[in-house]
Specification:
heterodimer; A: 343 residues; alpha/beta; eight-stranded mixed β-sheet; three-stranded mixed β-sheet; 13 helices; 11 strands; B: 325 residues; mainly alpha; 15 helices
């Protein structure tokens, strides 16, 4: 009896010992890349049985707050880390935080217009005009000119936007701010997760926007590319800065980053909306992992740098099946060098 | 157990034993525990208000009372006002009560007074089940069933008024609207009204019914003139519960209200509610934006108190009228 008890106790202690040898890393933040991160973390755990990475998808803002406060080891963010946020981190922790692009996403314009079955082509002016409330009818010449041979109805455009603060809105408004002086003056000078929309109905999350567009005749709304692909929605072709009309796709999103690669700064805090290049889809963006510059726990540091290396080398191939656009080679190479900055 | 301790140790000083005995006897213990339970709730509420007050400091300092009167909500320029949200919250809840109270009280009267007991129990079970459905489900039903249905039903009604519909039916209709939110809310709060009102009606003493019937009243006269007035306070209580629920409802409202912070007199226009904007924007907010959202929470709290107070006064007034009759 006593013997058995001792054995059980020894086993328990042994198990506890094994558990404590495991490196546990916690992260929080953006919801958009959460399916990708789950896949990566579980695949990475298969290779490194002793590393457990947890990720809570509670929003980019919450993730940045948590990593600044030091309650998580890293954050995920869809929005570019602002100078103020970087400064807040430095003030609190005494060192900086590094941004690593992981995969790419894009915002697409989905529509429901009677009689338009094929591609709807939109110029940047048309997109801005619709969302500013200046273009109110589908048969507006600004739309007609880009769509020769398509009969657009003389109906009012029902504009749909996101009602919740989101990275998707950030990317979309960032794009509008770049292509429209009117947008900069009237709505937001840069990208913002929430703005005062000049027109339109608000739908909650991608599902809400998609639902409204589906229900309302003659409507247009914006959702994430991966959401649109998974739900087989139709979406517009957008004219890019080189003048070419580009269909949103994983390839054209990756092309946008490749075309911007030369101008990407060393800290990767950059918006790549409205990029150069004739193959680039113009409303594309990175999503980032924010990792503190200094990690005191050596096993955590090794685990995170190993993960980044693996994610950039092997992990990228897992992106496309989950409808995320992989990073172009130029960006991957640049990031591999940046991993050494983690001290 | 206390008594057995007293018999085992009779040497113990008498006064002390009885004090202990008294302290652990049922009455005092029950009193202490129930007081603790009640006090905890008060403390939690007080802490809630304190936190809301503290968190909204930045916004209160910047906007003052103008916050309540302004209808701007611009996260980019950090200019915030609560009026469109207060408007949306009050109008959707009022609409919900307008629909749910007659239906709910009617259903409760049927279930308590007129239906055969077996049918009544079965239906009550189903109705109480409805109260347990998560609000996101009601929101989805709103988006996928109610809104498309309204898009079919409302336009002919509107057209029947010709070119000049009444103000509450004016403007374009996209389905998602104050009207849709009010209807979804009414479905959500009706089970509360039905379930509580039925219990209250069933609790009306049998003597009263029998007395009324003996005086020659018909069944309906008994119900409407004796039973319902007797149960009025309880029925009103159920309406408060429903009102509180509809004021604070978040998910279902945000899914069908259109989320547009403007004030339009038409029920067909989109709107916004306090709970909905907090849910939509809180996760990504910081600085004054976050503070303004917390102040909206404070406003909702105050609004609930004011509306509940007003409703209580209303009851008091009607109760006096009833007594003097």
């Amino acid at each position: 009896m006593m013997n058995r008890f001792t054995t059980a106790l020894v086993t328990l202690v042994g198990l506890a010992g094994a558990a404590s040898a495991q490196t546990l890393i916690n992260g929080a933040g953006a919801t958009f890349p959460e399916p990708m991160y789950s896949k990566w973390f579980s695949d990475f755990k298969k290779l490194h049985n002793n590393i457990q990475i947890n990720y809570t998808a509670n929003g980019s803002g919450a993730g940045i707050t948590a990593v600044t406060a030091g309650t998580v080891d890293f954050a995920g963010s869809d929005a570019i880390l602002t100078d103020a946020q970087l400064k807040a981190f430095k003030d609190k922790q005494g060192f900086g935080v590094l941004c690593f692009p992981t995969v790419m996403g894009a915002v697409v314009l989905t529509y429901n217009v009677a009689g338009v079955s094929g591609d709807l082509k939109l110029t940047p002016d048309a997109v801005a005009g619709i969302y500013l409330g200046k273009i109110t009818k589908w048969n507006d010449p600004a739309l007609g000119k880009a769509n020769p041979g398509v009969t657009l109805p003389g109906k009012d455009i029902v504009v749909v936007h996101r009602s919740d603060s989101s990275g998707t809105s950030f990317i979309f408004t960032d794009y509008l701010a770049k292509v429209s002086a009117d947008w900069r003056a009237k709505v937001s000078p840069t990208g913002a997760a929430a703005v005062q929309w000049p027109t339109g109905l608000g739908g909650s999350k991608n599902e809400g926007v998609a639902g409204l567009v589906k229900q309302q005749a003659n409507s247009i709304g914006y959702v994430e590319l991966s959401f649109a692909i998974q739900n087989k929605m139709n979406y517009a072709t957008i004219q890019n800065s080189a003048g070419a009309f580009v269909k949103p796709s994983l390839e054209s999103v990756t092309a946008a980053a490749a075309a911007s690669a030369k101008t990407i700064p060393d800290d990767f805090r950059v918006s790549i909306t409205n990029p150069p290049g004739k193959d680039s889809y113009p409303i594309s963006s990175f999503t980032w992992l924010l990792i503190p510059e200094q990690i005191k726990d050596a096993s955590k540091k090794t685990a995170l740098t190993d993960f980044l290396t693996w994610m950039l080398k092997d992990g990228q191939a897992l992106a496309a099946p989950l409808t995320y656009a992989p990073l172009p080679k130029a960006v991957v190479d640049k990031e591999v060098k940046a991993i050494a900055k983690i001290k | 157990m206390a008594s057995s301790a007293a018999t085992v140790t009779p040497a113990r000083p008498r006064g002390r034993a009885s004090l202990l005995q008294r302290a652990f006897s049922g009455d005092a213990l029950a009193r202490a525990l129930t007081f603790l339970a009640a006090a905890t709730l008060i403390v939690i509420t007080a802490l809630l208000v304190y936190e809301l007050w503290l968190g909204s400091g930045e916004s209160r300092a910047k906007f003052g009372f103008h916050f309540l009167a302004s209808s701007t909500w611009n996260p980019v320029t950090e200019d915030f006002g609560a009026l469109p949200f207060i408007f949306g919250t009050v109008v959707t809840s009022a609409l919900a009560l307008l629909i749910a109270v007659p239906f709910g009280v009617g259903a409760a009267i049927f279930l308590a007074e007129l239906a055969p007991p077996k049918l009544s129990d079965g239906m009550t079970f189903l109705i109480e089940l409805l109260a347990a459905v998560p609000s996101v489900i009601f929101g989805l039903i709103g988006i996928f069933v109610l809104v498309p249905a309204l898009l079919v039903i409302v336009p002919p009604i509107k057209d029947a008024f010709g070119d000049n519909p009444p103000f509450f039916l004016s403007g374009p209709f996209y389905g998602v609207s104050i009207l849709a939110a009010g209807v979804v809310l009414s479905i959500m709060i009706a089970p509360f009204i039905i379930s509580v009102s039925r219990e209250v009606l069933l609790a009306v003493p049998r003597d009263l019914r029998e007395a009324a019937l003996a005086l020659g009243a018909t069944r309906w006269e008994t119900t409407w003139q004796v039973v319902v007035p007797y149960a009025r306070r309880g029925i009103m209580g159920s309406v408060f519960l429903a009102l509180a629920r509809s004021l604070g409802e978040t998910m279902a409202v945000t899914m069908v209200v259109g989320n547009n912070p403007h004030i339009v007199r038409s029920l067909l226009a989109s709107g916004y509610s306090i709970a909905a904007i907090i849910a939509n924007e809180f996760a990504e907010a910081s600085g004054v934006h976050k503070s303004a959202l917390i102040e909206l929470g404070l406003v909702l709290f105050a609004l609930t108190i004011v509306l509940n107070g007003a409703a209580r006064l209303l009851i008091l007034a009607t109760a006096q009228k009833g007594a003097s009759r």
